[in-house]
Design goal:
It is an enzyme of class 2 (transferase). One of its GO terms (biological process) is acetyl-CoA metabolic process. InterPro entries: HMG_CoA_synt_C_dom, HMG_CoA_synth_N, HMG_CoA_synthase_prok, Thiolase-like. The chain is α+β, with helices and mostly antiparallel strands. The chain has a single domain, classed as Thiolase/Chalcone synthase (Peroxisomal Thiolase, Chain A, domain 1). The protein starts with 5 loop residues before the first strand and ends with a strand. The chain binds acetoacetyl-coenzyme A.
C-alpha cells in the first residue's frame, strides 16, 4: 500500500443563480414547514436558472482553482455527474474554452449516482501514486431533480465542487485505507428517457444505512481507524438529517451509545452548506467537507471520516487528516458569497423552470438570459450546446 502524501490541495464550490425557500414550498404543498426544517433538515434549495446546467456550475467551481494553481501537470480531468448533458461527450470537454483547461489532459465523465465524485477522488489518488508530479482536477457537479409534488421534491438542490488532487496536498491528506460495499438495488435511478429521478424513498434511506455499516466493516477489516478517533464525519447528504440518521445507525450497530449531543458535535459543521443548497448528488459529500473546514475550530492534524453513498448502490468509507496551514488555502468568503448571493425564486417560476423541456428539433434556440453567475448556456443550435462566459 502506497504511503506517499497525496490528497486535496485546493477545493472550490459553486452553486446556481436561484434558491427556493422551503417555507414557500411548504405553504404551496400545505405541509408544516418544520417537516422540512426539522424533519429532513433543509432550509432552502438551489435551483438552476434557464441558462444554467452542470457545465456552467462546474466551470464556476473549477475556474478559481486554475486561477490560483495554473494548469501545469494537470494530466487528467474527471467530472462526475448523474445529471449530464450528453450521452457520449464528457461534460468536462465543454470546459476547455470556458476556463482554459489544458489540451494535454485526458478528460473523462464518471457515473455511479452520488458516489461518482468519490470514484474520481480515488482514481486521482491512484494516478498520482503512479506519478507524483501529475495533478488531477476532479469535479463533482449535479442538479438534483425529482417530480413535482413527490416526497423527493423538497430534497432537490444543485452545486459543483472542484478539487485539485496532488502529492503534498495543502488541505487534506488521504489515508490509504478504504472500505467498500456494492450491491444491486433499485432505491434511486433515472432511466435515459427521464429528466427527474425515480426513487423508493424509504428503501433508499435503509439502503444508505446498511451500505454505510458494511463499508465501515470493510474499512476496519482492512486496518482503518477506530470510530472514536475521528474529529468529524462527512456523510453524503441527500438531506442533512440523513447524516444524523446514518451516524446514529452506525454507532448503534457497533455497540456505541448514540448520544445526540455527541452525534451533533461530529456532524453539525458538515451540514451548514447542504442545509441551504440541498442535495447536490456527487458534490454533496465534498460540500460537507467545505462546510466543515470553513466552520469548525482548528482541525490541524485531525482525522476525518468520509462516507460516500451512491444509490444503486456503491458505498465507500475512507479517511484523511487535515494538513497544517490548511486555513490559508480555504475559500470561506467565496463559499459564503456563492450561497448568500442566490436570487430568491418564486413558486410559479420554480414550477416553470422545473417543467421546461430541452428543445430537440435541431433549430436555433436562444436561452432566456437569467443567471448572474460567470458562465451561461447561451443557446442550443443544431443539437449543440453553446456556452458563454462573462
Ligand atoms: N415537524 C418535525 N418533523 C416532522 C414533521 C413536523 N411537522 N413532519 C414530519 N416530520 C419528520 C418525520 O417524523 C420524519 O422524521 P424521521 O425520518 O426521523 O422519522 C421526517 O420528518 C420525514 O418525514 P416523512 O418520512 O414522512 O417524509 P416523506 O416520506 O415525505 O419523505 C424521504 C422523506 C422519503 C426521504 C423523501 O424526502 C425522499 O424520497 N427523498 C429522496 C430520496 C433520498 O434522499 N433518499 C436518501 C437516501 S438515498 C441517497 O442518499 C442517494 C441520493 O442522494 C438520492
Amino acid at each position: 500500500m502506497t504511503t506517499i502524501p497525496l490528497g486535496i490541495h485546493d477545493l472550490s464550490f459553486a452553486t446556481t443563480h436561484y434558491a427556493l425557500d422551503h417555507a414557500v414550498l411548504a405553504e404551496r404543498l400545505g405541509v408544516d414547514p418544520d417537516k422540512f426544517y426539522l424533519g429532513i433538515g433543509q432550509d432552502k434549495m438551489s435551483v438552476a436558472a434557464a441558462d444554467e446546467d452542470i457545465v456552467t456550475i462546474a466551470a464556476a467551481a473549477a475556474q478559481p482553482i486554475l486561477e490560483r494553481n495554473g494548469v501545469d501537470n494537470i494530466r487528467t480531468v474527471l467530472l462526475a455527474t448523474e445529471s449530464g448533458v450528453d450521452q457520449s461527450k464528457a461534460a468536462g470537454l465543454y470546459l476547455h474554452p470556458l476556463i482554459g483547461l489544458p489540451n494535454t489532459a485526458r478528460v473523462v465523465e464518471l457515473k455511479q449516482a452520488c458516489y461518482g465524485g468519490t470514484a474520481g477522488l480515488q482514481f486521482a489518488a491512484g494516478l498520482i501514486a503512479r506519478d507524483p508530479s501529475q495533478r488531477v482536477l476532479v469535479i463533482a457537479a449535479d442538479i438534483a431533480k425529482y417530480e413535482l409534488d413527490s416526497p423527493g421534491e423538497p430534497t432537490q438542490g444543485a452545486a459543483a465542487v472542484a478539487m485539485l488532487v496532488s502529492a503534498d496536498p495543502a488541505i487534506l491528506r488521504l489515508e490509504p485505507h478504504s472500505g467498500l460495499y456494492s450491491a444491486d438495488i433499485m432505491d434511486f435511478w433515472r432511466p435515459n428517457y427521464r429528466t427527474a429521478a425515480m426513487v423508493d424513498g424509504k428503501t433508499s434511506v435503509n439502503a444508505y444505512q446498511k451500505a454505510t455499516q458494511e463499508a465501515w466493516t470493510d474499512y476496519r477489516r482492512r486496518g482503518g481507524r477506530d470510530l472514536t478517533e475521528f474529529a468529524a464525519f462527512c456523510y453524503h447528504q441527500p438531506f442533512t438529517k440523513m447524516a444524523y440518521k446514518a451516524h446514529r445507525h452506525l454507532l448503534e450497530s457497533q455497540g456505541h451509545t448514540a448520544d445526540p449531543a455527541e452525534i451533533d458535535a461530529v456532524i453539525r459543521h458538515t451540514t451548514s452548506y447542504n442545509r441551504t443548497v440541498g442535495n447536490s448528488y456527487t458534490a454533496s459529500l465534498y460540500l460537507g467537507l467545505a462546510s466543515l473546514l470553513d466552520n469548525a475550530d482548528d482541525l490541524t492534524g485531525k482525522p476525518l471520516a468520509f462516507i460516500s453513498y451512491g444509490s444503486g448502490s456503491v458505498a465507500e468509507f475512507f479517511s484523511g487528516t487535515v494538513e497544517p496551514g490548511y486555513r490559508e488555502h480555504l475559500r470561506t468568503e467565496a463559499n459564503r458569497q456563492a450561497i448568500e448571493t442566490r436570487a430568491p425564486l418564486d413558486y410559479d417560476h420554480y414550477r416553470e423552470l422545473h417543467e421546461a423541456q430541452s428543445p430537440s428539433d435541431g433549430m436555433y434556440h436562444a436561452t432566456p438570459e437569467e443567471t448572474g453567475r460567470p458562465f451561461r448556456l447561451a443557446a442550443i443550435s443544431g443539437h449543440k450546446r453553446i456556452y458563454e462566459s462573462r
